[in-house]
Write a structure and sequence with these properties.
about 350 residues; Mannose-Binding Protein A, Chain A; 2 domains; 8-stranded mixed beta sheet; 5-stranded antiparallel beta sheet; 6 helices; disordered N terminus
Length: about 350
């Protein structure tokens, strides 16, 4: 364990050199080594704010510039944690955002200011560190903010509410080199080796690891045999999950495939009353009216399995086709899904 910890610290220092920024002080790294995260709840010193886990730096000796704050939050994601950690980011007016800002106000002592995960390159377009745009009319900006094109990083600051006993926090632009407090948050799941992240989910494309083309059931067996994080399992990929952008996934998952058709996790239902009823491998219905079927699909009958079909000279986007899973080996896409 000690050797693994030492290796991690050396990797962090190397990362800092590669980024051409000063490495974090050793005492800061050691502070982060004492912080752990679990998937079931927010473990000290992370705190629960609505459905999220946040770390608020409150000590005067833990104030860093923006780049060091980014590294510090990344460092909290070490060890066996399966969740990424980053500087805190907001959405666009959800209740969770207000709860987070209220928590910043409650944690602010002596008008402390905290880094959050937003910045700009040109002083005009602001983005979160995950690439999403920060809209200038979003309600979490302080009045008249942003107002200085030389301030390229985003901070949260608590201000008193007139004639009220409480404070309220807003975000505003700030000089990146200043030493401020930090708010880190746990984010999306980390992907196991060979998986790629698309949106909030992890996928494995068989052709990227030189896996052989297989029939549909063989493909599913392969996906189910993969080692993934505890509390998850592997299976052929599905669409229609609440936090998935299906169109984005369909048109990105086929990238680099040596074939036009790729097995995914859908098949005909085993029913006696209907010969044309499909479902995903997690049990949800795949309606035959879904907009993701190609116009002539599904054909039903003996075509019992579903693939993604994309031919750039024929179609402008990827579609679902049904075909026989017993004939014709194809590439396939696995997905890490919740549950054992």
């Amino acid at each position: 364990v000690q050797s693994a910890t030492m290796c991690y610290k050396l990797c962090l220092l190397l990362l800092a050199v590669i980024r051409l920024v000063e490495p974090l002080p050793v005492e800061i790294i050691e502070k982060a080594d004492n912080i752990t995260i679990t998937s079931a709840y927010c473990e000290h010193p992370f705190e629960t704010v609505n459905n999220g886990c946040y770390f608020f730096s409150q000590s005067s000796d833990l104030k860093l510039n923006f780049e060091d704050a980014l590294q510090y939050c990344e460092l909290l994601s070490h060890g066996n944690s399966i969740y990424e950690v980053s500087l805190a980011m907001l959405d666009y007016g959800r209740e969770e955002d207000q709860a987070f800002l209220d928590a910043v106000a409650a944690k602010s002592k002596n008008n402390d200011t905290f880094w959050v995960g937003g910045k700009t390159e040109d002083g005009k377009l602001w983005t979160w560190i995950d690439g999403r745009e920060i809209y200038l009319h979003a309600p979490f900006w302080d009045i008249h903010e942003p107002n200085d094109i030389n301030n390229k990083c985003l901070a949260a600051h608590s201000v008193p509410v007139l004639e009220q006993p409480h404070s309220r926090s807003y975000v505003y632009d700030h000089e990146c080199s200043d030493a401020l407090g930090i708010v880190c948050q746990t984010g999306s799941i980390k992907c196991p080796p060979d998986f790629i992240k698309i949106g909030n989910h992890c996928y494995l494309q068989s052709w990227t690891i030189d896996a052989p083309d297989l029939h549909w059931q063989e493909s599913r067996d392969y996906c189910q045999s993969l080692e993934v994080h505890d509390g998850f399992h592997g299976d052929l990929m599905v669409l229609g999950l609440q936090d998935q952008d299906d169109y984005h996934i369909l048109n990105n998952i086929v990238e680099g495939s040596p074939h036009y058709d790729i097995w995914i996790g859908a098949h005909q239902r085993d029913t006696q009353g209907s010969a044309c009823s499909y479902q995903w491998v997690d049990g949800r219905e795949l309606p035959i009216e879904s907009i993701y079927w190609e116009d002539s699909q599904p054909l039903c009958g003996t075509d019992d399995s579903v693939c993604i079909y994309y031919h750039p000279s024929i179609y402008t986007r990827a579609y679902l086709f049904d075909t026989s899973g017993k004939y014709g080996a194809r590439p396939f896409v696995c997905q890490m899904l919740e549950g054992n």
